[in-house]
Amino acid sequence: MANYTMSDRGSYGSVIVELDAGERFVSESGAMFRASDNVEIDVTTRSRGGGGLMSGVRRMIAGESFFLSTYRTNDGREGQVGLAPTLAGDVTVIDCSGARRWLCAGGSFLGASGGLTLDTQFQGIRGMFSGESLSFLAVEGRGELLVNAFGSIQEIDVDGALTVDTGHVVAFEETLEYSMDRAGSSWIQSFLASEGVVLNFRGHGRLYVQSHNPSEFGRRLGGMLPPR
Predict the structure, then answer these.
(1) pLDDT confidence of residue 143
(2) Which residues have C-beta within 8 Å of that of residue 162, sequence separation ≥ 6?
(3) CB-hemisphere CA count at 13 Å for 131?
(4) How far apart (Å, rounded) are the C-alpha atoms in residues 153 and 179?
(5) Which CATH number is 178's domain given?
(6) Do residues 66 and 137 make contact, with C-beta atoms less than 8 angstroms apart?
(7) Over the stretch 1-50, which tens digit does the pLDDT of each residue have?
(8) What pLDDT is attached to residue 64?
(9) What is the pTM for the complete model shown?
(10) Number of domains in the chain
(11) Confidence of residue 166 (pLDDT cuts 50, 70, 90)
(12) Secondary structure, 3-state, the chain
């Protein structure tokens, strides 16, 4: 079983994954920034559940990388892999018991231990109008899931109902039902107030949210850049 050493919580989170001999770990392609010399790195489209090329295509639709990087030691000794997200923000470990699936919003997946299976869950027409990806990345099985946030990350134990802006959702347990709605009293009000679309969660389960919205940040930053 891998051990995880987190950097200080803050704007530039990272994690060191300590692998046992022969243990397998998967991350988003491009997340690795260091590895011990006995760690073998393979780039593939397959998750533990298989799927090959189409598995990579489905992850792209979900807002994740087409490729996955897999790590395993090749000499019977322990090894280390350092992982960090692309955007500046927090990183946390979610312990998955296997009793419930987790759904990750686009761009929030960082890595997963070998006992977890990655797949996609189609949002339907809701994803198109929410401004987010058409699918969530679904994580199933027993093991550890690494997620990252833009800004700080917060865990919320939902028991009843909670409204979250779509751009601030990181991951949640599948026991939570959700529906899309406007933030204001009308769609025009929501648009003019730059609030847009929210997700209304109901039920009982854990939810992770991020303090900052990467899409809004990108739009604000893009408007300041000179034209090409």
Answers:
(1) 96
(2) 156, 200, 201, 207
(3) 19
(4) 22
(5) 3.60.160.10
(6) no
(7) 789 999 877 778 999 999 999 899 999 989 999 999 999 999 876 555 55
(8) 47
(9) 0.82
(10) 1
(11) confident
(12) CCEEEECCCCCCCCEEEEECCCCCEEEECCCEEEECCCEEEEEECCECCECHHHHHHHHHHCCCCCCEEEEEECCCCCEEEEECCCCCECEEEEEEECCCCEEECCCCEEEEECCEEEEEEECCHHHHHHCCCCEEEEEEEEEEEEEECCECEEEEEEEEEEEEEHHHEEEEECCCEEEEEECCCCHHHHHHCCCCEEEEEEEEEEEEEECCCHHHHHHHHHHHCCCC
Distance, CA of 60 to CA of 123 (rounded, Å): 14
Per-residue pLDDT band for 59 (boundaries 50, 70, 90) equals: very low
Kindly tell me the burial class for residue 67, based on how many C-beta atoms sit within 10 Å of its own C-beta (0-12, 13-18, 19 or more): middle
Nearest Cα residue to 207 out of 98, 102, 134, 120: 102
Domain extent for 28: 3-224
What's the number of CA atoms in the CB half-sphere (13 Å) around residue 55? 15
CB atoms within 10 A of CB 220: 10
Tokens 């946030």 sit on residue: 149
